[in-house]
Each structure stands twice: as structure tokens, then as C-alpha cells.
Write a structure and sequence with these properties.
Elements lengths: L1 H23 L12 H22 L1 H4 L4 H14 L10 H11 L11 H16 L9 E2 L9 E3 L3 E6 L20 E7 L5 E6 L1 H11 L6 H12 L4 H17 L3 E5 L7
Antiparallel strand pairs: 1-6, 2-6, 3-4, 4-5
Length: 265
């Protein structure tokens, strides 16, 4: 019985590969023999339209920078060439960014900030579905940030880009790369909404120090920052830095301070 079933299984798998190869790249791969093209057309449109619709919803600003035909070429190139490592639709946006980073060859249709903008829009999607929650047992929401280590929200990040991605829109399309990088703080607020704003280099460095999870009191963190900057007035640097910490705390980016470890008996 096994010998009779094996050729049948192999034939079925061959048909599957032919079917999926044609669905991925119908312009270059023929459809399996014996299947009516009208039926194949349903699958061709269904699969591509599902993926393309997800891309358009995940990257609305990037999509607005393409003409219809140019966007379809980009989406189809991703659909046909990239081998996703995740079976989940929610991961399509990350797979698209990986495709742009590792496989895509730039064309005249692409904006020069293609990858930066795509990565930023992916970060928004990723943060929206991020399941991380603070360990509130270890956090004092009203702690003294001078004397205790400030705690960064697990859904807050500072990202650096060559292009001002947080300012790019359907109506604003920069053509010259700025001399200095753009820092963007992106976070999920108390209502679950994803927010972001541009940050100056000092705020970006504070975020970097917070993100590395080294336990520093606010005063220690700001003293390190003043030393790095070789600030001529360290006391003023501490006051300015503390105002930034308060701003981050008010936005919910800093969620409090780390509780002191209880001493054993």
C-alpha cells in the first residue's frame, strides 16, 4: 500500500509547488496543467490582494509616494521573491522591511528615503501590537527620579534615521538628505495609541542610557551625560536634563522609578 501511495503524494506535492509558484509570479511561471485559468485567476487575485492590502494599511505614507503601477511592481516583487519566515499576517510588515533591506534593488520609482520611512512605519505597527507590559511590582510610579533609577516603558523607543521620517507625508517629500540624523521617540500611551515626536540629541542620548537598562539614578545618569558633553556648567546641565526626564515621565515614556530591593532578614 505504501508503494502505491508514495507516487500519489509526490504528484500532489508537485502540483502544490506548481500552484504556489504560479500564484507568486504569474507573469513568469505557467499555471499547472488541467486547471481552468478562470479559477486560477481567483487565487491569483485573492492571494496578492490580501498581501497588498496589508502592505497598504501598514505603510500608508510610503504608499502615497508611489503611482499605482509603481507600487504594484514593488508589492509584486516582494510577493514573488521574498520567502517569509513567519506564517502570520501581522508579521508581513516586518517581512517587507527585511525584503527592502536585504533583497530589493532600488529603482527610479523609489523615494531615496524608502527604507527609513518603511522601517519607521513598521515600528508603529509593531508597537501597536506589542504585548509587553511593565512589571509594576518593580516600579514606583511616583518615585524620586533624582535618587532612584528611572524606568523606561517597555513600549517606548528612540530611533535614529538619516531622513526626518516623522515629518515625511504625502505632501512633504524631501530630496536632500539632512546633514544630521533625525531622532524620533515612538511610544504607546496610556490609551494604547502610538505616538511619536522628534527629539534633540540630548534627549536621544538620555533615551539611549535609559534603554540600556543599567541601573542609574536620575542624578547619576545626568551627571554621566554632562561629563560626556563636557558641559561648561554641570549644574545647569543637571537642571536641563531633569526637565527632560520630567517631560518623558509626563508623557508616560518614563513610567516611574525602580523600587529599592527589599533587604532579607
Amino acid at each position: 500500500m505504501a508503494n502505491q501511495e508514495t507516487p500519489s503524494l509526490a504528484e500532489f506535492q508537485r502540483k502544490q509547488f506548481e500552484f504556489t509558484a504560479h500564484i507568486r509570479d504569474p507573469a513568469n511561471v505557467a499555471a499547472p496543467e488541467g486547471i481552468e485559468d478562470r479559477r486560477m485567476a481567483i487565487y491569483r487575485e485573492l492571494f496578492f490582494n490580501n498581501v497588498n492590502g496589508f502592505l497598504e494599511n501598514s505603510f500608508p505614507v510610503l504608499r502615497s509616494h508611489y503611482q499605482e503601477a509603481a507600487w504594484e511592481r514593488l508589492a509584486r516583487a516582494f510577493f514573488s521573491a521574498h520567502r517569509s519566515q513567519s506564517p502570520y499576517f501581522i508579521d508581513i510588515s516586518q517581512e517587507f522591511v527585511l525584503y527592502l533591506q536585504n533583497e530589493h534593488t532600488a529603482t527610479e520609482d523609489d523615494p531615496v528615503y524608502l527604507f527609513d520611512l518603511a522601517h519607521f512605519e513598521w515600528a508603529e505597527v509593531a508597537l501597536m501590537v506589542d504585548q509587553d507590559e511593565p512589571d509594576w511590582d518593580q516600579v514606583d510610579p511616583h518615585g524620586d527620579m533624582h535618587k532612584s533609577p528611572p524606568v523606561l516603558s517597555p513600549t517606548a523607543f528612540c530611533l535614529a534615521y538619516a531622513w526626518p521620517v516623522h515629518e515625511i507625508s504625502a505632501d512633504y517629500r524631501p530630496v536632500e538628505q539632512p546633514e544630521h540624523p533625525s531622532f524620533v521617540i515612538i511610544y504607546r500611551d496610556d490609551n494604547g495609541d502610538v505616538e511619536y515626536f522628534g527629539a534633540d540629541p540630548v534627549t536621544a542620548r538620555i533615551m539611549e542610557l535609559l534603554q540600556d537598562e543599567t541601573p542609574r539614578t536620575g542624578n547619576q545618569l545626568l551627571s554621566q551625560l554632562a561629563e560626556e558633553m563636557q558641559h561648561p556648567d554641570p549644574e545647569e546641565a543637571l537642571h536641563t536634563g531633569y526637565r527632560i526626564l520630567l517631560k518623558l515621565h509626563h508623557a508616560g515614556i518614563i513610567i516611574g522609578t525602580r523600587k529599592a530591593e527589599e533587604q532579607g532578614g
